[in-house]
């Protein structure tokens, strides 16, 4: 599809992750033309791999009700937390009315989503977006490989980069939370690890550990950049030393025989959002619209919801009805405000470290969006 005499797609989806796949499937399912721009999400592991029970209904809407049932995923019913006190408390979701949550094999899940998009006949242009401009009621999209394409509506599902949406709406940030994360293997595979997720608060932040379907352990530490040891991403010794401040995470790793401590990778994990997630001819979805502190455990589910709802609003706008687009943006604004209140309340439960910088900062953060 070149610029000269090009066909104009109804919708162009920017991004190759979960939100982008949900948006593309929604548009294609409505019988409209759609193309996806940018490389697919890579096969590498990522720190977010929990799919909450609420995602089951969204997958069913997308015609993917069996997607996670057939994959190498783990039903996730047990979560343990040493949060308000240095004692473990268990939360079970075995009777959740929306069905079970799952700890995903994240590359397999993304591959299955991408396969569904391909089977729907949606073309994937792997070259990244280089430039975008509005020409009347049409978007002209120039890719890094020099090709040009046109679309009547844009859905920005490019993650925290928000490559299109940030041009049209200011972004707000509530904090600068960062994740240091890695994936551990067992030294003794005769030991059967507990199929669970564990969260533990410590003086400088909080830890997250979860057993993956392939028996590796996903391990992440969340804190502020200035509270992390300098050189952490290059020194596995520092990573091991930090675990000495834990009680339960270190005990789990030791009892189940986990090792292979490579230096962790670092990634932004803070809460940020667009002041307005939609405008004339465009809408943002997933982390491009609003990215929340991982403590919420709803990142993947929010991406599915946002991709589908953004696409439905885009389709309505193409038919001359801007109401769903306005309601989508208002719903996201409301969700941000509600999340900030809940986040402050949850962090406030940890009083044993109230004097430490990480926890003091959370106590001082506003519980509503600040302009």
Strand count, sense and barrel status of the largest sheet are: 8 strands, mixed
Q: Can you identify the CATH class of the largest domain?
A: Alpha Beta
Shape: globular
CATH topology of the largest domain: FAD/NAD(P)-binding domain
Number of H- or I-type helical stretches: 8
Rg (C-alpha, Å): 21 Å
Number of domains: 2
Helix content: 25-40%
Contiguous runs where pLDDT drops below 50 for at least 5 residues: 1-5
In the CATH hierarchy, what is the superfamily of the largest domain? FAD/NAD(P)-binding domain
Structural class designation: alpha+beta
SSE order, as H and E?
EHEEHEEEEHEEEEEEEEEHHEEEEEEHHH
From the coordinates shown, what is the CATH architecture of the largest domain?
Answer: 3-Layer(bba) Sandwich
- Give the tally of β-strands: 22
Q: Give the end-to-end Cα distance, rounded to a whole number of Å.
A: 41 Å
Task: Give a brief outline of the structure.
The protein is α+β, with helices and mostly antiparallel strands and 371 residues long. 28% of the residues lie in helices and 27% in strands. The strands form four sheets. Strands 1, 2, 8, 9, 10, 11, 20 and 21 form an eight-stranded mixed beta sheet that branches. Strands 5, 6, 13, 14, 15, 16, 17 and 18 form an eight-stranded mixed beta sheet that branches.
């Amino acid at each position: 599809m070149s610029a000269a005499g090009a066909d104009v797609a109804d919708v162009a989806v920017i991004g190759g992750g979960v939100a982008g796949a949900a948006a593309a499937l929604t548009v294609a399912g409505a019988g409209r033309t759609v193309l996806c721009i940018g490389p697919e999400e890579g096969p590498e592991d990522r720190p977010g791999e929990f799919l909450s029970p609420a995602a089951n209904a969204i997958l069913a809407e997308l015609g993917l009700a069996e997607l996670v049932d057939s994959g190498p995923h783990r039903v996730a019913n047990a979560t343990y937390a040493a949060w308000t006190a240095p004692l473990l408390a268990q939360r079970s979701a075995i009777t959740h009315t929306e069905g079970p949550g799952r700890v995903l094999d994240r590359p397999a899940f993304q591959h299955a989503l991408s396969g569904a998009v391909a089977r729907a006949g949606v073309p994937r242009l792997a070259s990244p977006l280089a430039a975008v401009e509005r020409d009347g009621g049409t978007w002209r999209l120039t890719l890094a490989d020099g090709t040009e394409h046109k679309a009547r509506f844009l859905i920005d599902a490019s993650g925290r980069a928000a490559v299109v949406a940030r041009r049209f709406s200011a972004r707000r940030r509530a904090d600068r939370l960062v994740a240091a994360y890695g994936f551990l293997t067992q030294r003794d595979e005769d030991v059967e690890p507990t199929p669970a997720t564990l969260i533990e608060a410590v003086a400088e932040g909080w830890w997250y550990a979860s057993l993956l379907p392939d028996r590796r352990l996903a391990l992440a530490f969340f804190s502020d950049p200035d509270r992390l040891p300098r050189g952490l991403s290059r020194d596995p010794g520092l990573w091991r030393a930090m675990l000495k401040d834990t009680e339960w995470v270190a005990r789990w790793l030791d009892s189940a025989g986990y090792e292979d401590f490579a230096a962790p990778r670092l990634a932004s994990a803070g809460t940020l959002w667009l002041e307005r997630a939609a405008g004339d001819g465009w809408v943002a979805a997933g982390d491009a619209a609003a990215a929340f502190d991982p403590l919420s455990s709803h990142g993947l589910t929010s991406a599915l919801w946002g991709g589908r709802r953004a696409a439905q609003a885009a389709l309505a706008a193409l038919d001359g009805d801007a109401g769903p687009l306005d309601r989508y943006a208002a719903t996201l604004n409301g969700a941000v405000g509600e999340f900030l209140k809940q986040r402050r309340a949850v962090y406030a439960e940890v009083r044993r470290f109230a004097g430490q910088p990480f926890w003091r900062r959370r106590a001082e953060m506003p519980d509503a969006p600040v302009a």
